[in-house]
Design brief:
8-stranded antiparallel beta barrel; mainly beta; 282 residues; 40% strand; Porin; elongated
């Protein structure tokens, strides 16, 4: 009897909770800002991105959302401003992200059709930068220690981890199509806490030390000006600037969102008043 009483009490709550649950989809583009991309926000060198997740409404204005995002980022000195073109570095990387965020909407979409919103939270992401050599062969950059990471001659430079934390934050606007369907567009920055998203951060290291520990391919991909017509084939001396470590790397997603309500027939918050649960939407 106790179990039956508990089920009779909990089931209506679960049924009500479902009225606040939504599935979300995202489609747009991904890009990054760092040593190989000198435009903070741009479509230049961007790639397609997708995402999916769930959102739970706490109130008419506040929601908790969580989801997975996938995108591809990259940068190429050939497309940079002229002062950086002769460095001739480039990279690409897939980015896989899982995030948990809070979202605040300015208006209740059941009272107004459209509302701006802001969001922020925490995310964990995985990346793995790679490039192609002059023969078109693909090489992942982190194991090559292009800036001396892990070399005994540079004890202060540890190999960077390929899974990191970031702080997502952004803005958007959404439009209620039906009681169940909401379309939106959002822009979300991701602040990272390191500077090797593009494998470029500090200075060139000693050519001989890098060659002896990591081999000729590491030297070849750490300095690539010699591949250019008119480029300098002489490897820079130890300590020559390669990147700017004073600024951490960022990545971002921007695109269209689709939110679909799950079991919205008994929406918790309705036009008759907050907290009412017995008035169906349809």
């Amino acid at each position: 009897m106790r179990l039956l009483s508990l089920l009779l009490f909990v089931f209506p709550l679960l049924s009500t909770a479902q009225t606040r649950l939504h599935g979300t989809l995202f489609g747009g583009f991904a890009n990054y800002y760092g040593d190989l991309q000198n435009k903070p926000i741009t479509l230049d060198q961007s790639s397609l991105a997708i995402g999916a997740g769930l959102k739970y409404d706490l109130t008419e204005h506040i929601a908790i959302r969580s989801g997975f995002m996938y995108g591809r980022i990259g940068g190429d000195d050939k497309r940079n401003k002229s002062s950086l073109q002769f460095r001739n570095l480039n990279f690409q990387s897939k980015v896989f992200e899982w995030n948990v965020m809070a979202e605040y909407s300015l208006f209740d979409l059941y009272e107004k059709k459209i509302s701006p919103y802001v969001f922020g939270g925490i995310a964990i992401f995985h990346f793995n930068p790679y490039t192609f050599d002059s023969l078109g062969n693909k090489h992942f950059l982190q194991p090559l220690s292009t800036e001396g990471q892990g070399l005994p001659q540079y004890p202060d430079r540890d190999p960077y981890k390929l899974t990191q934390f970031s702080i997502p934050m952004g803005i958007g606007v959404k439009y209620r199509v039906t009681d169940r369907v909401v379309l939106g567009y959002e822009f979300g920055l991701r602040k990272t806490f390191f500077d090797y998203l593009d494998d470029v951060s500090t200075t060139y290291v000693d050519q001989t030390a890098l060659l002896n520990v990591k081999g000729p391919k590491a030297v070849e991909l750490a300095y690539r000006s010699g591949e250019l017509h008119g480029g300098d084939p002489n490897y820079p001396v130890d300590g020559t600037t390669r990147g700017g470590s004073e600024f951490k790397d960022w990545y971002y997603f921007s695109g269209v969102t689709l939110t679909i309500g799950i079991n919205t027939n008994n929406r918790l918050f309705n036009r008759k008043g907050k907290g009412s649960v017995d008035c169906p939407v349809f």
